[in-house]
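Milestone M4 deliverable, item 7.
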Amino acid sequence: MKKNLSACPPRLQRMRLQLSKYDIDVQHVSGKQVPISDLLSRQPLKEKLNIEGLDLHVHTVLKGLHITDRRLDSLRNDTKSDANMQILKQTIINGWPDSRADCDPAIVEFWNHRDELSSADDLIFRGQTIVIPVCARQHLVDSVHRGHMGVEKSILRAKDVMFWPGMSKQITDYVLRCAVCQKHRYTNTKESLTPHELPNRP
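Output delivered:
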């Protein structure tokens, strides 16, 4: 609850927005101190909840992204045509399996991020960033490194807008293979040899 609203995943943002009209005091009680589990916390509702202001929230997130409308449309089409993205979208909507072993192999790489993923407006989000389909990743890596910035700057620039598992490693490998960056990168100048004076006698 202390984290900024913009830093929370969309699911928690929606919950906090719904609770904002109440003055609540949240207290954590560890599992060993709870004698009997609460029935309502163990049995999820079958019907879909219609959350007020969800479309406004999605619109706010999309407008906050540093990405053009044309690129967003392209990403929507790529997401629709990517079979793995469609499996991921259905899993987000219908719920994740109880264990990693039961997860579909096509989306198992997203298992560690499952609590942060959400789907809206034909796009998949991880928090405030867009999950990029495989076919669009290489082009976006090229775009991030267009100014020939270093590894750290390129990764930080990418993390503001996009996400996919292994993104940092892919960007790092791409930047380190860039011929222009290799040619002009800063290197420590070699220390010139300074030979000692030769003695005149033993």
